[in-house]
Amino acid sequence: MAPEHSLTLVVTDLVGIFVFAVTGALVAVRKELDVFGVLVLALTTGLGGGFIRDVLIGVTPPAALQDSRYLLVPVVAGILTFWFHPALGRIEKAINVFDAAGLALFAVAGALKAMDVGLGPLPATVMGLVTGVGGGMLRDLLAGRVPAILQRGELYAIPTAAGAAVAAFGREVGFGSLLVATAGAALCFVWRILAMWRHWHAPMPRGSASV
Amino acid sequence: MAPEHSLTLVVTDLVGIFVFAVTGALVAVRKELDVFGVLVLALTTGLGGGFIRDVLIGVTPPAALQDSRYLLVPVVAGILTFWFHPALGRIEKAINVFDAAGLALFAVAGALKAMDVGLGPLPATVMGLVTGVGGGMLRDLLAGRVPAILQRGELYAIPTAAGAAVAAFGREVGFGSLLVATAGAALCFVWRILAMWRHWHAPMPRGSASV
Amino acid sequence: MAPEHSLTLVVTDLVGIFVFAVTGALVAVRKELDVFGVLVLALTTGLGGGFIRDVLIGVTPPAALQDSRYLLVPVVAGILTFWFHPALGRIEKAINVFDAAGLALFAVAGALKAMDVGLGPLPATVMGLVTGVGGGMLRDLLAGRVPAILQRGELYAIPTAAGAAVAAFGREVGFGSLLVATAGAALCFVWRILAMWRHWHAPMPRGSASV
């Protein structure tokens, strides 16, 4: 990959971490945690998905422990949220759009990184999903609530898995990384945005109370 | 180990994963999670114990990420539970017997795998315990409840640890793998079944309310 | 490092694990868990922080799985707490002082171990923090409560991070390991004791109810 692509990847990666970290810090503020709790949830939400993936695929220490920018970005996101959370609360829709973008990027990056270490396309799809949703699940566990993605709400995990699958199976059949990453991320992002806009939900088991 | 033994091991392993995944999916259905939540709890409960063990003993990526059958089995278990959970609720006793079988197998397999990478028999026993109960603990954490095995109830973890210890210390003193695995699994399975049948409980700290 | 220093390190390490394990077992007793729940929380609280650090920095299996003393100490701590918890409840202040000592040691040991495998001083500080507070966070998650360190209370994590930072950045600029470990541990310990004595709290986000 040419240097300008690598730079693009790092920048979008850091943007994704930043937005995820803001969502973690906002949860901490709403739970009335102190400044340390805000920083921990910012770090965990921004970096947790990638940490779980890297530990599972055996790539340790994770990249975020080897490049200080990956630690500084969620710390800055946490501090900004700590000070400016009333303003952030007013732009929640914009944050959701950025969150969808981060999700799309993490899903395809996680899936392709798993294939780089030799995993098949199905496990790589699972790793892409873990990369996208793992940080938010850790955030919710630490904040003492059932992970949001397991509960009723607009589709979140299914578009993530679909985007990761497009990237993983696309590369498996021979397409280039940039093409499958773009296609997978676009699918995930557009589907997630449509799900928020049109209030699409995943099916519930029979016998559950209707939504 | 002769090929027919290996095949037996894989089949019993997959059966154990299937049954654990069903228990995870049933918890998700009762918590009224959506189809994705059902699949996540099925995957986590079926594979979580082995993942924690493999990450701790440094065998990454875990086998379940290298052989797609290990991912497909809990997915199928989750989908079946999603559709047929009323029927599964009626055969809960049968599920508990299969769960005891899965527990017995996971305990001895986890302990022996830990010894294969050079751990002593005491840490290997802990790894066997983690393999057996780790998936259920993750299931309960994600479902927002204190892990069932930490709470009052019929003996669950103690038979698991005992079975793992028989396998680990048995091999340490020189018995064959098949012998110690059979003895350890039989001890765990029979003890667990008796505990359910006779309502055996673990001791409580002094001063706790009586059960 | 001379042998007498290594022995000192192992002894203080085991003392730290013992005290942390007692705090975990006390939480289990208060939650009315059974004897197994007490042992699991003792093991998790005593060893969890080091396990998370070792898994993240890729040093697996963790030392605690290779040296049986590291498993026996929290088991003994759990059994003692199970039997003598009324007496332990009466010396809670003494336990808090030992806990501060364990925290100080874990923070600097974790940071220096991370630097030993090549991490920079900022990630090493994070690893020192994880080593110090990770076990207690796992304890609280398993016990079904939001981790104590994320909530209002006397400063706990910030002295830990400061002690780890002194050790990591001190070694980075060339000071000896023993000097930076002593300075970092002393800072963490004294700050934590002062915070308990003078009821120092971390800042809260704007708009939170005052403490």
UniProtKB/TrEMBL annotation, chains A, B, C:
Keyword DNA-binding set for record: no
Keywords: Cell membrane, Membrane, Transmembrane, Transmembrane helix
Pfam families, A to Z: Gly_transporter (PF03458)
Domain Glycine transporter residues, every copy: 11-85, 97-169
Membrane-topology annotation of the record: Multi-pass membrane protein
Transmembrane segments: 6-29, 36-56, 68-85, 97-115, 121-141, 175-194
InterPro entries named in the record: Gly_transporter
Location in the cell: Cell membrane
Protein family membership: Belongs to the UPF0126 family.
Protein name as it appears in the record: Trimeric intracellular cation channel family protein
